[in-house]
């Protein structure tokens, strides 16, 4: 079997297919709820990011043991315009 083969061909009974469809629908509902909750956290998340950035520019970041390195404000990451944080819940195959 090739390394990238993710499934083995087999027959599925109608009741197994119905169960799979039900499970998939339930998982998609759970994902939608998680995604809504994560989007609702956006204002708090931005605050958490800023608190972290303030902390590493003022106090520094542990480089090794007790050695701390202050991070310059110019070295802080900037979120690309138009890009939002997202919940990743599914791993794609090659091009997905």
Summed up:
The chain has a domain at about 15-75. It has helices at about 15-40, 40-60; strands spanning about 60-65, 65-70. It has 2 helices and 2 strands.
Q: In terms of structural class, how would the helical and strand content be classed?
A: mainly alpha
Distance between the termini: 22 Å
Principal-axis shape equals elongated
Mean pLDDT: 84
Tell me the major beta sheet. 2 strands, antiparallel
Please tell me how large the radius of gyration is: 22 Å
Question: How many separate helices?
Answer: 2
Number of strands: 2
Q: Extract low-pLDDT stretches.
A: none
> What is the subunit organization of this protein?
single chain
The portion of residues assigned to helices is 40-55%
Description:
With 96 residues, this protein is mostly helical. It has a domain at 14-75. 46% of the residues lie in helices and 7% in strands. The chain is built from 2 helices and 2 strands, in the order ααββ. It has helices at residues 14-40, 42-58, and strands spanning 61-64, 67-69. It has a two-stranded antiparallel sheet. Strand 1 and strand 2 (67-69) form a beta hairpin. The chain is elongated. The protein starts with 13 loop residues before the first helix and ends in a 27-residue tail after the last strand.
